[in-house]
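Help! Submission page says 'invalid entity' but I think these are all valid:
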Amino acid sequence: MSSFHEIRLHGRGGQGTVSAAALLALTAFEDGFESQAFPKFGSERRGAPVEAYVRISRSVIRAHNQLYRPDAVVIQDTGLLRSEPLLRGLKPGGLIVLNATEKPADMGHSFRWISLPASQIGERHIGRPLPNTVLLGALAAGTGWVSLRALERAITDHLSSKGETVVNANIEAVREGYLFTSNEEELVL
Amino acid sequence: MKQLLEGSQAVAEAVRLCRPQVVAAYPITPQTHIIERLAQHVANGELAAEFINAESEFGAASIVLGAVASGARSFTATASQGLLLMTEVLYNIAGLRLPVVMICANRAVGAPINIFSDHQDSMSVRDAGWIQLYVDSNQMAVDMLIQAYRIAEVCELPVMVCMDGFLLTHTFEPVVLPSQAEVDGYLPAFQFARTLDPTQPMTIGGASEADNYQEYRIAQHHAMENSLAVIEALDAEFEQQFGRTSGGLLQGYCLDGAQIVLLGMGSLMGAVCDAVDNLRTQGEAVGALSLRCFRPFPAQALIQYLSGAQRIIVLEKAISIGGGGIVAAELRAALYQAGITTPLESVIGGLGGRDLTPEVIETIFKKRVEAETEMTNHFAPNHIITDEIDSGGKAHG
Amino acid sequence: MDKRDLFRDNVLTSGHRACSGCGEAMAARMVTDLIGPDAIYINATGCLQVFSSHNQQSAWQAPWIHSVFANAAAVASGVEAALRAKGKNTPVIVQAGDGGTFDIGLQCLSGMIERGHDILFVCYDNEAYMNTGVQRSSSTPHAVRTTTSPPGRLANGKHELKKDVISIMAAHHMPYAATATIAYFPDLKAKVEKAMSIKGPRFLQVLSPCPLGWMHDSALSVTVSRLAVETGLFPLLELEHGELTGVMRLAEQKPVEEYLRPQGRFKHLFTGKEGGVELRHLQALADARIRRYGLLEADTKWDTARAMQSERNGRGGYVSTSTSGGAEHGA
């Protein structure tokens, strides 16, 4: 497996897309990798499409340029599929982690897809339909780039200021996302 | 301890460790995360400072001027339009020889209004009398900020740490934050003799005329020149204590046997180094030189590094409209003075957030190396994704 | 060694380069001596800065700083913040002209007040940019001749009114704002002392005639500033937290012409064809101010007649006039 991964996350303002990117970078860092996370630069507007990016590497990451050829794309809101070129630059064989109750009919291309109802899972654990940590669990299970243990530790660190209840709820959410994906047969087209 | 931090948070922690007594700022993208974090530190009692919400950047610069003149270590941060609004006060702070430290979260200047990164803001105030240090990474931003207070207070000159907006300020990456004891060991408490004190009344900022004004300016210029050695010495001292260097005035990469040198400033140097690695595997004798200190301009050090080069390509993210590349012009003058006539290419790019990827830099390199004659003031090409993968996205668009 | 004791009688010592009869120099001498040398003075660019700190010479016997024109209130904010951080309570005083207060310095001044800094801002108001050669400011009164509001075939001097800056100050609901002139030292003294007894942002506007710009005899600076008060054109006021708490009552209202006649800056009103209209306008403005502030009927311990009487007793006259003097003034 290559030791350099680039991930792009899509969501809407308010869905915690940038937080998820930071959390993923933190997870990789916990696992002993070098990592980097950054948002699509610009003004932050609630409800507007948001992108964030993560680099994970064995060696020091020097570059601060944008990321154009992700190995994986995480999509927090299927509604974005209608308006945004979400798969642009995704490498052949790249992974798509999609927050959806059903797999989209028109997927095309040789990508790997993971679909899971992340908002519902998030709502069940966190009390709000927040898909971000659930999708990170799925990404971890679907790629093996980061460990579930590191993800849990990162959540504990990252959310510690919000209290134990929030931390535990998010850990439950991330676990379910991880297990859902581990049990689900991946659909390869 | 090595942590994964947002750049703004990392430098805010570095500021906190330097124990400023007064922080004054006015919000402007992309500087906001730095001052928000400092405001929170003050609110939490983690930083014993007066946090002053200025009514403008002009006011913020004036507040730190007054605070430092009263003997309090101070901090401010701004960018772009805000830095230009400060301009009058920046000259004044430097003329009064007040050791103010600020961060410029580098951003383009309007019109058209643009919030993204380039170096036009800080380069536009290059003559104000501030030491200007450009950083490649968030680790270097932290380290340079700590060094900046030492440099400022030893030289009695203001220091601007220039840190690319968004590209560094909004990027999470691993950073080693020193402990309070370590920083205290490097940066002693602020001692300043020329302060406003009723027991030693002093007139600061009086008028001057033709018979002595020039001497003030010459003294200021000499202080800047003398700071070159101080910057190097304090970086060496920093390295000794912390085990990391910020390179002092400049830092080379793969310069051994390099016939062609790519020179630039700030966060673009990461992509430059990646491009150098790629070009080296293709057999190109190329290296990179990161210019950390633009003011004072380290002409001698640059000549030392570049005297063996056969071609120099200067990449810069600012333009003197009607003139061209600013770093290139100054470097060309320095080389000419040393009798070095190495061809020097000036390439301007990355303006207003335009991405400078390793691919773009390799393209520039190849085009310039193929060219027969020395050219000035090219503009970098866009990063274009050409392969078929791109159409996958469009199918959903 | 405390260098203050070597040679000093005044905070603003003699030998500076102000014009003869300079109202601002008199005002600054009075104000700074009342406050004393144990304070930090921040000066905006302007006449006072130029004539007191000229070319490696200084008339200041207290710590004094000048930065640029617009930022005196912000520099002072920084000084005050630094003192607070160091646990010191040295008084911080800003001195600025009307340009540095009404115009270019207004934003920094407003910020200083809004943030609640413990600073006294003193505006020496000579109603134009005198340092640069008498150009109009927003403090210049209606119909005044300046080099940039000249009378001509189509103009009778400045068309607009003098900016009501004390109301702008009051609108900040600041602890204390007052107007004063060099003609009534006991009143000025009471106001400076009151200002110095209050914490928070304070503002003092001191009308300071400029013989050069106002074009009156250098010997008449005090007389002219007294007439500004007696005609009602420049009411002496105190405002606390936005409320009017004190006015100096007029013993009688003098016609504005008595104030305008000695000043060359109004001369065109007495020679030009349409001057009469402007004279009536200026009289109406004075009448309006008298009504607005109740200058003829206000119940106050102070009035111009008593102030005159106390002044005749000399500089310390304020203290010797009566037991119910300034201490209760405005309380």
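Support: the input was valid. A stray whitespace character was the problem, and the output above is from the cleaned input. The longest strand of chain C covers residues 92-97.
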